[in-house]
């Protein structure tokens, strides 16, 4: 077993890839890159629309492990699944989160016209959204008092993609997603400390250690 202050993992079966939540720019993808470094070899990072779809892939591919944020609302689905084995966990703070938009001008116009401002966010950081909105007042005057509509999405990176596509006005997303989708960060940074958990298929692991 590998073990240090921020990381432990059972001696795993031969691993070639990590399955986790996409799309490009998610905190899960960033954490997967960090996990690959911790394990000490380059691993392919496979991105899925949900953690559940990622696990379906892991169930069928013995060289792949599942990476899940411990803050995930339904993480118990993996802890309690008889087909999964908790392989390890580690501490990793993802890139800072920001409230992002396409352009300041478009957002200012909607506020001036008293139109609804649509904001996309993943469920996990939802409780921090109000503070980020208030921190934008020095750039976007009046946004705190605007009529806001919150859209919960499958990942913060997917929220950034919705902004880039013009489906919503703003998103709560990390710096990687903001950059990837060419958005403008308009809030103060939000630093979140997180623990991540790694699972393998329990039957696959038994075959490797038998």
Q: Within the largest sheet, what's the order of strands? A: 1-2-6-12-5-3-4
Cα-atom radius of gyration: 19 Å
Please tally the helical runs, counting DSSP H or I stretches of 4 or more residues: 8
Low-confidence stretches: none
Helix content: 25-40%
Mean of the pLDDT scores? 90
Main sheet attributes: strand count, strand direction, barrel closure: 7 strands, mixed
Summarize the helix and strand pattern as letters. Answer: EEEHEHEHEEHEHEHEHEEH
Structural class: alpha/beta
Portion of residues in beta strands equals 25-35%
Number of strands: 12
Shape: elongated
Alpha carbon gap, first and last residue: 16 Å
InterPro entries: Preph_deHydtase
Organism: Xenorhabdus lircayensis
Protein name: Prephenate dehydratase domain-containing protein
Domain Prephenate dehydratase: 18-188
Feature tags:
8 helices; 7-stranded mixed sheet; 29% strand; 210 residues; alpha/beta
